[in-house]
C-alpha cells in the first residue's frame, strides 16, 4: 500500500513539474508594468497574437491551443525532456488540462521582429496555477522566450518555447 502511495505521489509531482513547465512555456503572466510602445506593426501583431493565445489557453480547447504552435515546434520546460512536435506537445497539454485547478496565463513584455519580417521573438511573463504536493492550489511565476515564424499565409506560429522559473 505504501509503495502504491509513493508511486502516486511521484506521478503527481512529475505531472506538476510538467504542468509548471507548460505554464512556463506559456509563458507570461499579467504584470503591473505598462506595455512598451512599438513603432513596428509586426511587433504589435506578434504581441496581440500572444495575448490571444493566452486567452485561448484559458478555454482549455486543446486544438485551439495547439493551433498557435508550428508543426515542428520545440517546447523546453525546466525539469522535463524537450517536447518536439505537436504530438508530444498535445499529450502534455491534454495532461495539463486534466489537473484540477490548473490555469496558465501569460503576457508579452517585449517583442522583436526581424527586419525581413519572417521571424520574431517575445520576452514574456507567465503564471501557472496547479495543486502542490498537499493538494492546495499554488501559483508559480515564470519568464519565457518564445521564437515565432511567420507562415506563408501571414500567421505567426510559435516554433521555440523556453521558460524558466522567476
Description:
This protein has about 170 residues and is α+β, with helices and mostly antiparallel strands. The chain has one domain: Roll (Nuclear Transport Factor 2, Chain: A), CATH 3.10.450.50. The protein has four helices and six strands, in the order H-H-H-E-E-H-E-E-E-E. It has a six-stranded mixed β-sheet. A hairpin with a 5-residue loop joins strand 3 and strand 4. The protein is globular. The termini are far apart.
List keywords for this structure.
single chain; 166 residues; alpha+beta; Nuclear Transport Factor 2, Chain: A; six-stranded mixed sheet; 4 helices
So what's the CATH class? Alpha Beta
Main beta sheet strand tally, sense and closure: 6 strands, mixed
What is the average of the pLDDT values?
83
Distance between the amino and carboxyl termini: 37 Å
- Count the helices. How many? 4
Number of domains: 1
Structural class: alpha+beta
As a whole number of angstroms, the C-alpha radius of gyration is 16 Å
The total beta strand count reads 6
Spatial arrangement of strands, main beta sheet: 2-1-6-5-4-3
Element order: H for helix, E for strand:
HHHEEHEEEE
* CATH fold assignment: Nuclear Transport Factor 2, Chain: A
- State the low-pLDDT regions, or none: 4-39
Percent of sequence in beta strands: 25-35%
Q: Which percent bin holds the helix content? A: 25-40%
What sort of overall outline do the alpha carbons produce when their principal axes are compared?
globular
CATH architecture, please?
A: Roll
Amino acid at each position: 500500500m505504501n509503495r502504491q502511495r509513493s508511486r502516486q505521489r511521484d506521478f503527481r509531482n512529475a505531472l506538476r513539474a510538467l504542468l509548471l513547465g507548460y505554464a512556463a512555456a506559456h509563458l507570461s503572466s499579467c504584470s503591473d508594468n505598462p506595455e512598451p510602445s512599438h513603432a513596428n506593426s509586426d511587433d504589435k501583431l506578434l504581441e496581440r497574437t500572444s495575448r490571444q493565445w493566452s486567452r485561448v489557453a484559458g478555454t482549455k480547447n486543446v486544438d485551439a491551443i495547439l493551433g498557435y504552435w508550428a508543426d515542428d515546434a520545440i517546447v523546453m520546460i525546466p525539469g522535463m525532456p524537450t517536447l518536439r512536435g505537436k504530438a508530444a506537445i498535445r499529450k502534455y497539454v491534454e495532461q495539463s488540462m486534466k489537473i484540477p485547478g490548473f490555469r496558465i496565463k501569460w503576457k508579452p513584455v517585449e517583442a522583436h521582429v526581424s527586419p525581413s519580417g519572417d521571424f520574431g521573438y517575445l520576452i514574456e511573463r507567465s503564471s501557472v496555477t496547479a495543486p502542490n504536493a498537499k493538494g492546495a492550489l499554488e501559483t508559480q511565476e515564470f519568464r519565457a522566450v518564445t521564437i515565432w515564424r511567420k507562415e506563408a499565409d501571414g500567421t505567426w506560429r510559435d516554433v521555440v518555447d523556453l521558460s524558466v522559473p522567476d
